[in-house]
Amino acid sequence: MNERNANAQDSLKGIVETLYDQLDGGKIPTMSLPQRSKRNIEFDPKKNVWVYGDQQTVRTAKTVNGALMMLRTVCTVEFIDTMIRENRSSTLREMYYISEGWGHGKFGSQNESNLLAEDLEIMSRCMREDFRLRPEEDGARIMGDFTLTEKLKRGGTKRINCLDDVGESGYGIPYNVEKDNVSFVGGNAKFAVAIETGGMFDRLVENGFCERHNALLVHTKGQPARSTRRFIKRLSEERNMPIVVFTDGDPWSFRIYASIAFGAIKTAHISDYLATPTAQYVGITASDILNYKLPTDDLSDQDVNALKSELSDPRFKDDFWSSEIQAMLDMGKKSEQQALAKYGLDYVTDTYLPEKLANMGIPL
Amino acid sequence: MHSNQKTLNMTDAVPAKAAPASRKGGVAERMADKQKEISITEFFEKNKHILGFDSRQKTLIMGVKEAVDNALDACEEADILPDVFVKIDRVGDDEYAVTVEDNGPGIVHRMMPNVFGRLLFGSRFHARRQSRGQQGIGISATIMFANMSTGKPAHIKSKVMGPDSVAWGMDIMIDTRVNRPVVTNDKAFVWEGKEHGTSIEYTTVGRYIAGRQSIPEYLKNTAIVNPHCRITFVDPDGKTTIFERATDVLPVKPVEIKPHPEGVEVGELMKMAQDTAQKTMRAFLTNDFSRVTPRIAKELLGRAEIPENAKPKGLDAAKSKAIVDALPHVKIMAPPTDCLSPIGDTLIKKGLMHVLEGARPGYYAPPITRAPKSVNGNPFVVEVGIVFGGELPAEGQVSILRFANRVPLLYQQGACAITKAISNVDWRRYGLEQRGGKGIPFGPAIILVHVASTKVPFTSEGKEAVANLPEIITEIELALKLCARSLRSHLNKADRRKKTRTKFQIVQEILPQLAEKSASFLKKPVPNIDRTISEIMNVVWVEPIEEYDKKRKKKKVTYRLFNYTRRERTFMLHAHLPKEAVNLALFSDPRFVEMNDEGKAAWRIDAMEPSSNLDITFELDGELADTFSPEEVYVSGINTVIVMGAEALPGDWGIKGMEITEFEEEVPDDDEEDEEEEEVLEDE
């Protein structure tokens, strides 16, 4: 048990005490949490990221969901407390299954247990990792001339160069990327490219983009997991590496960038820990679709709704995003990053990325 | 079939008695009568559809219907619980042998040919009361049609009540040219095991089908509105279905009344005047009509400018018309209504429950029996029952069960006043779907409508649809709305109950677990959460619990009361029990106060402590035990905003409940569940 674990234990116990005292005092138990929606996130100029605002939701035991949520909270806290005392850990999914034995405290879905773990983070001002809860698997991968050391569960540490010491699929990011587990040594890589799709990641690897331009490629696997975002944040913060995000050109990809650069709504309580405010968006933008005459698909109804929802998302309120989102709505089209193959397999590495990166002040 | 016998009696008796005294030039008159009869027989032969014999399927059903109607009328008239046997045998392609046997009083030997072998008409005018067969043409028309279609005679057996009476059997054909029965094989025989009753067997061309308009459906519906009868049915495949009787109580026998002048027609009036035994017009009007007092007779005759002492025989068309024209200007009391025998709310429910058990409906709205009204001098009464939910099919239109004088109406639904009335009601207000608030509603429901009258106005002689008289449609609509109101309140209640039940789950299961779990984690004593529970609920909760032992016909009812408020509570609980089913257990409950003649019972709950609960129990025995719905429970002496599971004692309950002596209540805020539901989080 480390200090952080002990701290978590105390905080969590405090949450249960509050509930107990309310019951003992003949009151209807309530629990307050920041409202976790896009209506309640605001820009924190000191930290340069988006965090929760002042709006609170009050959960009350007057409703079944409120009462159940409190019961789950107590059950979960007890479970975490036991894990910390016994020096064990579990996955979120394991916790979901363990809840089978919690009577009414049983989680209805994995999503509920994930949300509760985040709620506990918010209330205790600790991190999931402090609770010894970890996500199912991570497996986001990186490739590039960058050396790090990783602590091994079987003992000792291993020094790995993410180009020379790995195969075609790169280095897998572990769920714990804190300094005590992963420490950076450094290498020739000068900037990092977060890439949405595996296809594009492999294209860049095959085309020798890492070696030729000293790039560190990070495959986000769609929405990047916490550890991936934390890893990117550390690259930026500790190594001063410029970060660019390269995704498909559709509303969902815009949100990938938002969660990397601004901080995700769901984890806004730890934005300063996960978000990389300096990350820049490469594309595919709505303008790219026009400028590069990319093959497109029509926006679906969900796409349109997602874009409209982004127009009212405070994180996208700047000129660049407002105009890009509006432009996409106007043309009614979207495009994939692999659509660049229209001009040949080398087009993305020879033409598109060099042009775009140059505009961002990262000359290749 | 007794009723037909009676009908016949009257037709025969009247001329016999009247002829010597008054029919002077009677030969020509009688010939004229006969000519009329002949033409009617032939007319019907050529116009089968008027009687409802217009398709092969229908022919088979209509025959069974006429025979069963007569059997039930005969049994009831003789105060016998009907036991009717119906059997259909397939004897060839589209040729069937139909047997209908009853346990009625039987028909005397000399009357048998006439009852089944002559088309009778018009004689019911003198006997006004509710009965199934009205014109006395149905069964003989059935036999006539059978004779014609197969060339085979009908075989009739009957045995009258009495210790040493013998049964008679005979074959009957109808000579359609002269409207007279041709009898063969007339023999006395010993009917083993039969005390009394009548059996009719005939072979007819027809077609047997299953489904909505079928013999089993007709018999099933008959069983619903005639819960006092037992019907056994053997179908062409030999499968036997028995509709057991649901009650041993015979319906109240309707009293015969004289015709009411309202609605009488010129011709009818003339015929009555011809046939009357009265010597003066005043006596004729006063004695041969209901609700006509000497004063009214005088006023009518005065307006018609007819001397009070004029002889009725002299009433010609002009004078008759003068009287009819005078009628609207004279105020005459509505006809008496004891000539009607409605089924009654309890037995409608009983009949529905008994027959629909297999369909597992969720709710039987308390049926409505309206007060009698009259139209054209004929009293009528409307009854409505609604069955909803459960396993009734939710798809498609509701099922409509139409009845006239306890007879199911299977055909011409679209032309019927009942359907019209149902379509006129805006069912959306009562929890059913309906396009544009008009037409037959949709949803898992069965709507039963019964119109009983001394003379149900049908659209045709086939008696398939009630005519669209505005008076009748209005009454049906009113009854439907009253019954539907119960349905709506049931649905609302179910909704509220569901909400409260979730609160119940919170206070009974979740919070105790929360208290225990947090206490054990913190190693502290388990907190007492009674106050928290009262804060959350702030209700007095009435939970009905019932156990029904079907075999022993015993229903145990428990009202479990919880006082989840912060104050002591004193109030009364009320329920309308089927009082025949009540046993001593009711009176032994310490909180029982009283039960009145109608079965309205009351319990008093004194100074019930906050966070306490108590049970009130009683038992119901016998046939009517299952007609009681424990959810129909009421409270008085307490503000109902803080009561869940019981309604305020209705104003028309007839009993004064307890006065409310409490202060204003804090209304429990109706927290919408999930008011804190988060927006879907859109990214990781």
Describe the structure.
The complex is a heterodimer of chains A (364) and B (684). Chain A contains 13 helices and 17 strands. With 364 residues, chain A is α/β, with parallel strands linked by helices. Chain A has two domains: 132 residues, Winged helix-like DNA-binding domain superfamily/Winged helix DNA-binding domain (Arc Repressor Mutant, subunit A, Orthogonal Bundle), CATH 1.10.10; 219 residues, Dna Topoisomerase Vi A Subunit, Chain: A, domain 2. In chain A, the strands form six sheets. In chain A, strands 10-7-13-12-14-15 form a six-stranded mixed β-sheet, with helices on both faces. Chain A has a three-stranded antiparallel β-sheet with strand order 9-8-11. A two-stranded antiparallel ribbon of chain A has the order 1-4. In chain A, a hairpin with a 5-residue loop joins strand 8 and strand 9. Chain B is α+β, with helices and mostly antiparallel strands and 684 residues long. Chain B has four domains: 207 residues, Histidine kinase-like ATPase, C-terminal domain (Heat Shock Protein 90), CATH 3.30.565; 64 residues, Helicase, Ruva Protein, domain 3 (Orthogonal Bundle); 129 residues, Ribosomal Protein S5, domain 2 (2-Layer Sandwich); 126 residues, Immunoglobulin-like. Chain B has an eight-stranded mixed β-sheet. In chain B, strands 9, 10, 11, 12, 13 and 14 form a six-stranded mixed β-sheet that branches. Chain B has a five-stranded mixed β-sheet with strand order 18-19-17-21-23. The chains are: A alpha/beta (364), B alpha+beta (684). Chains A and B meet through helix 1, strand 4, helix 2 and helix 8 of A and helix 14 and helix 15 of B.
